[in-house]
Design brief:
Blueprint (H helix, E strand, L loop, with lengths): L1 E7 L7 E4 L6 E5 L4 E9 L3 E6 L4 E6 L6 E6 L6 E4 L5 E6 L2 E6 L5 E6 L5 E6 L5 E6 L4 E5 H6 L7 E3 L6 E6 L7 E6 L3 E6 L5 E6 L4 E6 L5 E6 L4 E5 L8 E3 L8 E2 L6 E6 L5 E6 L3 E6 L5 E6 L4 E8 L29 H11 L8 H8 L4 H48 L1
Parallel strand pairs: 19-23
Antiparallel strand pairs: 1-2, 1-29, 2-3, 4-5, 5-6, 6-7, 8-9, 9-10, 10-11, 12-13, 13-14, 14-15, 16-17, 17-18, 18-19, 20-21, 21-22, 22-24, 25-26, 26-27, 27-28
């Protein structure tokens, strides 16, 4: 079962609201400031984290507590965009054209990236948390390797795409682990689809109006694009064109969702692929039935929406008990050194390392060598002492068992002799 999480610009009633999508019932609200666009995230089903619009603050709420700010972190500037990795280990924030990477469990600022020339507009992670994509107002779309970012002082993106002529307004990265695709939309009226493994642009879809948002269903069968004028277009990915270039036929009404009066800034598809959620500047969020294209529920707000997405109905939404699985510490404002120190480097290795099932024993030994020779020697001595102690205990147990067995045999023999007499 899923819920809808939204935030809007007015902040008159709340910062964030959790809705039941089909009935429109308010399940929970969280107060405190106004969340910026593309800056509201759920962390591990335990917390909500958001950057505050027009203020250098990041706020964190526990999902089971209404109207209570768990943590309030002061930043060096206004964070426009915020994204949390699916593994819940890292958080990427955009400070103007700069990308900041924090480790959630320690709060350490582990990387600072400068490659965009204007404000960053969106950041999205891949499903395995190994890479993330950033887009900027200058039209650049960059692909970053998280491992390279964490262990390189001067890091360059793995891929750079500069074929958008106007600001990029929306990103979406598919959940595929084998061939992840990146969808980007721009005010230049184009939606571009790229293969993150090869860096090749697969399709360039041309529309007749500026675009603001994009989403893809989990089966990767359809792509949904929100426009500046309030229309939502559906692109069939199972029947792609023969060439890279494609023009959208706006006369095909069956491939459009019509109802919003202003720009559609947020799009999200439910897990079952039956419903589409859209958030607009017309102060409403709408839930659409995918099969019929009809609006089944309108969620009214007091201002233009900044965030709207489907999320699982986490257990903390239905209970007052709080047992978090994720630790969030206060984020650092700046890095204390040029790169990760030895301790934090080891922590990152342990958090990020996810070996394949058929990895050899040699590679495992090589990874264990990252802990250092001194620590390895100390652990060897501890293991030897523990082994000696276990051998001593085993000898004592053996002697005790033998003694008991022999004593029982002697007792049985004596009693049988008495009975015969």
């Amino acid at each position: 079962m899923e819920v809808v999480i939204t935030s809007e610009c007015s902040g008159q009633l709340w910062n964030t609201c959790v809705w039941e999508p089909l009935t429109g019932t308010t399940l929970r609200t969280f107060k405190g400031g106004i969340s910026g666009s593309q800056s509201l995230c759920v962390v591990g089903g335990d917390y909500l984290i958001a950057s505050i619009k027009d203020k250098p603050i990041i706020q964190v709420w526990a999902l089971n507590r209404q109207d209570q700010i768990t943590t309030k972190m002061i930043m060096p500037g206004i964070i426009q965009v915020l994204a949390v990795s699916p593994c819940n280990n890292f958080c990427v924030g955009a400070l103007s054209e700069q990308l900041l990477v924090w480790q959630l469990s320690t709060g350490k600022l582990v990387a600072s990236l400068r490659r965009h020339y204007q404000n960053v507009s969106d950041v999205k992670f891949t499903a395995d948390s190994s890479r993330f994509v950033s887009a900027g107002a200058e039209g650049l779309v960059l692909l970053w390797s998280l491992d390279t970012v964490l262990h390189s002082k001067e890091c360059e993106p793995d891929s750079t795409w500069s074929d958008h002529s106007l600001p990029v307004t929306g990103l979406h990265v598919t959940k595929s682990l084998i061939q992840p695709l990146a969808f980007s939309v721009s005010l230049d009226q184009t939606c571009k689809i790229r293969d993150l493994n090869t860096g090749r642009t697969l399709f360039n879809i041309q529309f007749g109006q500026p675009l603001r948002s994009v989403a893809v269903d989990h089966a990767e069968e359809s792509c949904y694009v929100g426009s500046q004028e309030g229309k939502i277009y559906r692109i069939d990915l199972l029947d792609p064109p023969r060439g890279v270039e494609q023009m959208v036929d706006e006369t095909a009404s069956r491939k459009m969702f019509v109802g919003h009066e202003k720009a559609v800034t947020c799009l999200s598809v439910s897990m079952d692929g039956c419903h589409l959620l859209s958030g607009s500047d017309d102060e409403s969020a709408r839930v659409w039935d995918m099969a019929s294209g009809q609006c089944v529920r309108i969620l009214a707000h007091r201002g233009p929406l900044t965030n709207a997405f489907f999320a699982p109905r986490y257990k903390h939404l239905d209970t007052d008990k709080f047992h978090p699985r994720v630790i969030i510490n206060t984020f650092e404002k700046k890095r204390h050194d040029g790169q990760l120190n030895a301790d934090s480097d080891t922590n990152v290795q342990l958090l990020m390392r996810c070996p394949p099932l058929l990895e050899s024993f040699d590679s495992e030994c090589q990874s264990n060598s990252l802990l250092g020779k001194s620590e390895g020697q100390a652990s060897d001595e501890v293991m030897q002492n523990e082994l000696s102690h276990l051998k001593y205990v085993n000898r004592q147990l053996y002697a005790f068992a033998v003694d008991k067995i022999l004593n029982n045999d002697t007792t049985c023999t004596t009693s049988s002799n008495k009975k015969r007499k």
